[in-house]
User: What shape does this take?
Amino acid sequence: MKQDGNSGFFKKVYQVAEKIPEGRVTSYGAIAKYLGSPQSARMVGWAMNASKGMENIPAHRVVNRKGLLTGKSHFSGTNAMQLLLEEEGVQVRELQIHNFEAIFWDPMKELDEEFN
Assistant: This one.
């Protein structure tokens, strides 16, 4: 079977996502920007969706730029994403992260490694 053309990019996305601390969230765009591809937020979303079954990838900690839980489809349309975040102490109201700016994890500021 032929490898997906995005597999190298997805691997880099996963390397960043694995580093998101418990109780913090980041955005698809922040990961894309960190990886040197700021226009690839949607591809980061695809990577998160493709990570189903990868227990080491905390896809529930990646949300859209406004703090909305847009990745719910990854969790089969259930409220599992919200429940996982709430278990980590993240407050969610009407599918949006409460106090988003305060708990936002920016890989550009938090990580020293270069994935570019």
The beta strands are 26-27, 62-63, 92-93, 96-97. Residues 7-110 form a domain with the Arc Repressor Mutant, subunit A fold (CATH 1.10.10.10). The first helix runs from residue 7 to 17. The chain has one domain: 7-110.
